[in-house]
Amino acid sequence: MTTSLWRHGDFMKLWAAQSISLIGTQITALALPLTAILLLHATPIEVGVLATMQYLPFLLFCLPAGAIVDRLPRIPLLVVTDLCRAVLLIAVPVFGWLGGLSLAVLYPIAFLVGGLTVFFDVGHQSYLPSIVAGDQLVDGNTKLNLTYSVAQLAGPGLGGVLVQAFTAPVAILVDAVSYVSSAGLLRLIRHRDVRTADEPRGKIVDPRELVSQTREGLRYVFRHAQIRPLAFATGISNFFYLFGMTGAIFTLYAVRELSLTPAQLGVVLLVGNVGAIAGSLIGGRLLRRWRFGPVMVTTVSAGAAATALMAVATPANAMVVLAIGILVGEIGVMVYNIGQISLRQAVTPLDMQGRMNATVRFVNWGPIPVGAFLGGLAGQELGLHAVLWIATVGNMLPAVPLLLSKVGRMRTMPAPLPEATGATGD
């Protein structure tokens, strides 16, 4: 009999660490572009390049990260990446106080933090199946996504207030503190990784073996009838929605086109991200009680409604319309993410989790820097409204890979493979 996750000490520490870290991350997600826009007077293309630098590491490092993560103890890896990100973010207010802050400083910091986030995210997502039982994966992912939702709710609102009151660089300092706190909690986890007998421990493979293991991850994902369409659908969504094309220009659009202050923008994100909490709370229930495939198809397409609402907003109704748009989009994102992450983890053997997650993250997040750059470029040449209408059409496309595969027709999520988890829930 599995233990309730509420009484699972190591899971609760992992959950708490993620919670603290994500709130800080969401503050920076607003504060970093506001630093460029308000302090450095960045143009649309410069804001697009900043977003590109944040997500370019997912394109460059995801594939080798999977092979590396599968061979390293994950808790030390997570702790080191947390602490390194904290040091990099502290540099932003320091440069600000010294009068040397510029886009030339923000770009490499965004890139390096993004690179560390690649390793953290792959390690974090690959670690969960080793500490919870197979029948706890959906519950565990629901709780982790709920935390992400709460962070999305509280982080931007707090970030807007901090930027308004103390400037954007000071808000970023709060994120640095959150990473240090997360590292401290992760160090308290007692569970050690479950490793296969033939898997070398404590060392990174040589380049040839790294290439070989990266290819294994690519083959596994692209030959898997369920994981492949999920990866493509998520990648298309990320290209057009809040991380990619839309995300690159959203803050600039809200501040310059709709005349919102940082505090007002924080309130918009605070209200809109209630949808993320709602999606996290109902996601597991929807996926269990309704047909799994149609729920996934519907929710992955919610971004189209969100960007359409953003495009029709005016300065007079901006706060209400933008909040509703984000609310609709976030409900869809959260329900879909609970389903796709749980399905991937359930059908993947434990010793392939890191490579699978890294390959999927490469397909999912690799398009983001391209979408962000093209969003900034299109915003510069065509205008910010045009970008939102392009994104609206694009956000209808993620459903296509699911509809053309068995995922779109699935009644229920398959039971986890016996070798897909390494814990009994104790």
UniProtKB/TrEMBL annotation:
Keyword Hydrolase in record: no
Signal peptide span: none
Keyword Cell membrane attached: yes
SUPFAM superfamilies with a match to the protein in the record: MFS general substrate transporter
Compartments, as annotated in UniProt: Cell membrane
GO cellular component: plasma membrane
Residue intervals passing through the bilayer: 20-40, 47-69, 166-186, 230-253, 265-283, 295-313, 319-338, 359-378, 384-404
Membrane topology of the entry: Multi-pass membrane protein
InterPro entries per record: MFS (IPR011701), MFS_trans_sf (IPR036259)
Predominant subcellular localization, coarse grouping: membrane
Alphabetically ordered keywords of this record: Cell membrane, Membrane, Transmembrane, Transmembrane helix
A single GO molecular function term of this UniProt record: transmembrane transporter activity
Protein name stated in the entry: Putative MFS family arabinose efflux permease
Record organism: Actinocrispum wychmicini
